[in-house]
Write a structure and sequence with these properties.
Shape: globular
Bound molecules: zinc ion
Strand content: 5-15%
Mean pLDDT: 92
Structural class: alpha+beta
Radius of gyration: 17 Å
Order of helices and strands: HHHHEEEEHHEH
Number of strands: 5
Length: 151
Amino acid sequence: VSEIAGELIEQRLKRFVDVCRCRGLKVTHQRLEIFRQLASTDAHPTAEEIFNRVRVQLPRVSLDTVYRTLATMQEYGLIARVEALDDRGRFDANLERHHHFVCTECKGVSDFYWPSLDVIKLPREAKKLGEVRQICAELRGICTSCQSQPG
Ligand SMILES: [Zn+2]
Ligand SMILES: [Zn+2]
């Protein structure tokens, strides 16, 4: 998991505020802090992990509130939900077109970009199934940090 540049976090926060204003969603301190925690990491945290980070700033926030806030943000297209190997939902503030590498050992989810896949022509068979709006690749394997672990 790499550090997210402060500049990128600021960009994400600015977009967050813009989209909220535009769509009439109130930018409360609580929403902003929950989003900031998610926007500051590329680790695709679960709601519980976000809750544990947010609690430092907002001691009175409940896990339920964090769940509901994340659901609202997802509904408004402010964040994305990632379904990885475990069935716990994970969240992603990276809204750029990207794909995921999922480690089957540590369940870590990492972003990567694959421009040549993004322009690929779909098989007719896939098109017949419905209107495709998004293509997400999920690669599964053993991440480099798990590979370097003995045993
Ligand atoms: Zn791993
Ligand atoms: Zn991602």
